[in-house]
Amino acid sequence: MADTEARIRAAAIRLWAERGFHGSGIRELAEAAGVSSATLYHYMGTKEDLLAAIMRDGLLRLLELARAAVKPAQGTEERLSALVQLHVLTHAVRPEQTRVVDWEMRSLSTEHAAEIVALRDEYELLWQEAIDEGCRSGLFRPAHPRVARLALLEMCNGVAHWYTPDGPLTLEELALRHTEMALALLGVAVPVGVDVVRRCRDLITLMWTD
Amino acid sequence: MADTEARIRAAAIRLWAERGFHGSGIRELAEAAGVSSATLYHYMGTKEDLLAAIMRDGLLRLLELARAAVKPAQGTEERLSALVQLHVLTHAVRPEQTRVVDWEMRSLSTEHAAEIVALRDEYELLWQEAIDEGCRSGLFRPAHPRVARLALLEMCNGVAHWYTPDGPLTLEELALRHTEMALALLGVAVPVGVDVVRRCRDLITLMWTD
Amino acid sequence: MADTEARIRAAAIRLWAERGFHGSGIRELAEAAGVSSATLYHYMGTKEDLLAAIMRDGLLRLLELARAAVKPAQGTEERLSALVQLHVLTHAVRPEQTRVVDWEMRSLSTEHAAEIVALRDEYELLWQEAIDEGCRSGLFRPAHPRVARLALLEMCNGVAHWYTPDGPLTLEELALRHTEMALALLGVAVPVGVDVVRRCRDLITLMWTD
Amino acid sequence: MADTEARIRAAAIRLWAERGFHGSGIRELAEAAGVSSATLYHYMGTKEDLLAAIMRDGLLRLLELARAAVKPAQGTEERLSALVQLHVLTHAVRPEQTRVVDWEMRSLSTEHAAEIVALRDEYELLWQEAIDEGCRSGLFRPAHPRVARLALLEMCNGVAHWYTPDGPLTLEELALRHTEMALALLGVAVPVGVDVVRRCRDLITLMWTD
DNA sequence: TATGAATGAGATTTCATTCAT
DNA sequence: TATGAATGAAATCTCATTCAT
Lengths: 210, 210, 210, 210
Hints:
4 copies of one chain form a homotetramer.
Chain A (H helix, E strand, L loop, with lengths): L3 H16 L6 H8 L3 H8 L2 H24 L5 H18 L1 H9 L6 H27 L8 H13 L1 H4 L8 H15 L8 H16 L1
Helix pairs in contact in A: 1-2, 1-6, 2-3, 4-5, 4-6, 4-7, 5-6, 5-7, 5-10, 5-11, 7-8, 10-11
The first copy, chain A, binds a DNA duplex (21 and 21 nucleotides) through helix 3.
């Protein structure tokens, strides 16, 4: 079977999101993936190698999407909105993988950690640049830009914690509410415009077709 | 030694904050506490009992302080400000314990989880009430109050993640910036008043003498 | 039980002499020692730690006896005879431990190897000194002293290979024949004297009472 | 590739000489031979089959050469000299294979062991016959012929242990010194004759062209 | 001829826990 | 109050081997 690797990866994400990397063993993983524990090692290298691969994938994908969302010359407000929506939607649509990415950094040994931390820093830099740009243009007025970035990211990470598609909140509402809150937090009082809504819908479509 | 129990608890908090509950064994714990692993069981019951005790303590303390901060008849703004400051300062001053409280809920088995989750819910209710009250009074205008509460809590939890007293930010700045961001997020554009600053200083004193 | 450690060590020596260090697992060892495999780790550290301990012990004992045998001012012939007899008798009386010492050096990782190799070198130096001294005095006439030392040691090591106390050869005969062969190999044609025989008997008594 | 089998065999000899049969796995073997581990099984049958084949080859070759060296009607001294030189040179020129032959007998299961042990016994019989013949003729005077044979063989086996062609000793010196020591050990005090030296040189040429 | 996929059994080691002292 | 001894169960990972392709 060629999809064995995919099954293993999916099972690992599910288990580790739920019980943590150290909280679930290789045998559970094998059973969840429907293979023997020896077969696991055919595909994953070490348990930790698999963790690193999962985190790397998640971060690379996020980074790629974020760069695409930020690249085109656009207004400061749209730029930050795009980052917020992308982040929030990713965390809502793939909560398990993002939980692993966000919470299992400490389970990496130093060799793997270096690479993964670098990717995360690269991603967060896009946020910082968007915020700084907004400050320069006078649109954003946070008392402390770096603290604002950290606060925003933590706030948006939280979505993977609590959001469930079965609840009363649609993905669009979720993303728009976070966009509003983020802008408000940065000192922008205006309600989100119609183009932001349209862009958000495009993003949701993109996430599901991808 | 009468402080053996305290040493054990401190060691557990340190270890579990750093490596996670499942990521560190009781032998490490014993060594870190300077006792034999058998002695551990004199004090802690099960490993999980100790985890529950640590979480219970942290939550009870937070709850008690939060109730004290919220009880006196006071304005909506001060009420929320007090909660934010208390939460942020607790997470800044005791990052290890709060990390354990915030992140190790999934490591509890169902028996313990019920009690701890109830405490957390009780605490979060204080936030929801403060927010709802602000909405009723017209001061807060979040598009979705429950989402706002979740966003605020995640944002404030994050402090335990990244704040370090060695950095450029004083505790007071940290707390005030978060107060401002929280109010802004809820639609209040006013800068924090002098009484909020005073109250914040009192709180910082309280945290250190306690 | 205080002798658990002794039982473990004895079992390890027996197993590793017979099947090799890598040829027998920890479970066999546990069963042979009459404990659980977890208990093993209470005493031995790592499997390799136990190997190093066994080798260290064997070499230290041999070294101590060799120094005692060589120290007193005595003739060149007696000095070498003492070394040969000590070595041969040790290999005959404790064939299993000596086989482990002689053959499992390659199973040690570099950290352990350094210490053990140093001990072995120290021991072999006593032989080299005895041979060189005999060459200086003109009693020994090997064409190549270093080769002679290596040849002698290999010859005497072999005893652990093939000697069995159930066979037709007594310990005394074994030791005396090897003394003769060693001296002959070094160019001394005289038969062993009565004092060498006496000394050999003393040594045999010593080995058994120790 | 037709030399795949040769590569596998060479890799096995190298690995097993260095780390032992049980000390190296078939994955290492596959990698060292440059094939997949599945391909191994095309050529070697079982891992143990390969070990038996390697030992069989080594012993058959030694036996054949020894018979050729001993057959022609010749003097007792030359006969033993030829055996010593052949043995020593083989162990010096092919140390890895001889180490495997000499040290991995215990890794054979009983089925294979019977055949291999028989070959070894056949070879050692040639030595015993040469020694006994020398005793009958009065040239050799060992106190115990069987012990002498064992001592000689162990001494000569040792060469595979310590000899290195990079050292100060040429192959010719190595072989001649051992011839002298062997004869001395058997009670023959005469230095080796010029014909023995000539024969030794022939043998060295033979070993390298073969 | 060669290999990737797969595995049951077993490797060494650590787990949380108990208990007699 | 404190611990060394002990363990069943489970941890991660490797073993030699088979088989369809």
